[in-house]
Write a structure and sequence with these properties.
The protein is of the alpha+beta class. It is built from nine helices and four strands. GO terms for molecular function: transferase activity.
Length: about 200
């Protein structure tokens, strides 16, 4: 398999963590690229020019990090990222993580192209409010939970989104405002898969 990615995409990092957790990293060739440079090979794999993209052994191209994660879960069932017994709960958390990731990522991209003055726009303000609501909800859902010894797709999506916030939007300083969420996050990101894929 081949995976098109870069080092700062939260979406690509989510897929890398799933690969590591499932012991599939040796089965994948990493194709590092710049999605903003209209990389020819990337565009061939995904005409949208977005990463990550997974090319399967059969030559099928898969885009969107969550869909790639679901596919990888089917390729290597153990350890499962999506448990049938609590599928609804895992997908609920994965959705919250995806929404947080999206709000943070689109804010970063808007600043990249239009400067920080874009922060005053209604669109960025709406994203900022969404981030605060999501953080508050996550803090309430994870604040009292003991750290599990296993990990699922929901955990990965949320922890990656929180890391991305700290990496790209440090002024939000969610760690200080939500110490219970920070305690949960610290437990998850102590795993080798997170340490090996840390944003830099």
């Amino acid at each position: 398999m081949e995976l098109y990615l870069n080092a700062t995409s939260p979406y690509a990092r989510l897929v890398r963590i799933v690969l590591l957790e499932k012991g599939l990293m040796d089965a994948v060739t990493l194709k590092w690229c710049d999605p903003w440079a209209d990389d020819v090979d990337l565009l061939k794999a995904n005409p949208a020019g977005r990463i990550p993209v997974l090319v399967t052994e059969e030559g099928t191209t898969l885009s969107e990090s969550m869909l790639i994660a679901v596919y990888l879960d089917s390729v290597s069932p153990n350890p499962p990222m999506l448990l049938a017994a609590n599928l609804g709960s895992v997908l609920h958390l994965a959705g919250l993580g995806q929404n947080l990731m999206d709000a943070a990522f689109t804010t970063v991209i808007a600043r990249k192209h239009y400067g920080n003055e874009i922060d005053d726009s209604e669109l960025v303000q709406r994203r900022s409010r969404a981030i605060q609501r999501l953080l508050k909800q996550l803090n309430s859902e994870f604040g009292e939970e003991p750290q599990a010894s296993t990990i699922n797709l929901g955990d990965i999506a949320i922890a990656v989104a929180l890391d991305y916030l700290a990496f790209r939007l440090p002024e939000m300083n969610w760690q200080e405002e939500y110490p219970q969420l920070l305690a949960w996050h610290s437990g998850v990101t102590a795993r080798a898969s997170f340490e090996q894929t840390a944003f830099a």
